[in-house]
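ARCHIVE CARD
CATEGORY: sequence design from structure
SOURCE FIELD: tokenized fold
FIELD CONTENT:
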């Protein structure tokens, strides 16, 4: 459903993996140029990622944006000076429950605490850290559904994914749309002035609520169905194409 008469776009919210980054985890020259031109027009460009600052800073810094940054699926919002405005934590007891599920089903997992990204080994004492996100990567559909069903019983969890085989868990109410809405309030615009681009379920809320929600050509089917427009893939400069169509 393409929108004909949309409000002027004043903020572009862009997911990283599978969206802004190609499969080599690089930002193409075409994407960089389109972002630069949008900024020169006075449009805010906000990277909105599931990654932590530790795992996205180098790439984000390479864009030299003078704007807000949303990390860990909306758990953290940073201002244009890189100062933390807000952070939403996940209750440690839930992290312990997910760690048990990981062991029961022998899944691959990772988690983001305020001070680290944990992959191959986890701290002995989970309570010594402040947690923001837990992720499972489960190739087996049946096992993934069992874990999803178990986690869905808890109303304090926000469950999305960043690829078809994974699950990403944040505190309830944490998503990219809520974080972008807070940024909009700070700069005096509304969600109608937002162009949002993404490929996975952790991008769904912002794609649905933005004035224009764009799904990548490589996006998950449900994300494409929910978008106003589908651009080309992350390997074909889909971000640049969407910015040129809707903003420039």
């Amino acid at each position: 459903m393409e929108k004909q008469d949309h409000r002027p776009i004043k903020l572009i919210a862009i997911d990283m993996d599978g969206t802004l980054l190609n499969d080599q985890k690089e930002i193409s020259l075409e994407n960089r140029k389109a972002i630069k031109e949008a900024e020169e027009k006075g449009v805010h460009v906000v990277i909105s990622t599931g990654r932590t600052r530790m795992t996205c800073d180098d790439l984000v810094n390479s864009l030299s944006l003078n704007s807000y940054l949303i990390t860990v699926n909306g758990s953290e919002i940073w201002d244009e000076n890189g100062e933390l405005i807000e952070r939403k934590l996940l209750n440690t007891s839930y992290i312990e429950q997910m760690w048990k599920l990981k062991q029961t089903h022998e899944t691959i997992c990772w988690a983001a605490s305020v001070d680290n990204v944990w992959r191959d080994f986890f701290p002995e004492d989970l309570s010594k850290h402040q947690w923001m996100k837990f992720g499972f990567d489960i190739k087996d559909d049946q096992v993934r559904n069992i874990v999803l069903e178990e986690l869905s019983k808890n109303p304090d969890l926000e469950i999305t994914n960043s690829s078809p085989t994974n699950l990403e868990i944040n505190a309830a109410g944490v998503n990219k749309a809520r974080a972008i809405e807070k940024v909009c309030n700070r700069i005096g615009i509304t969600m109608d002035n937002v162009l949002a681009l993404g490929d996975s379920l952790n991008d769904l809320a912002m794609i649905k609520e933005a004035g224009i929600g764009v799904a990548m050509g490589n996006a998950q089917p449900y994300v494409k169905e929910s978008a106003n427009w589908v651009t080309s893939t992350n390997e074909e400069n889909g971000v640049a194409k969407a910015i040129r169509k809707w903003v420039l």
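CARD ANNOTATION: The radius of gyration is 18 Å. Residues 111 and 118 are 5 Å apart (CA to CA).
SHELF: design records, drawer C
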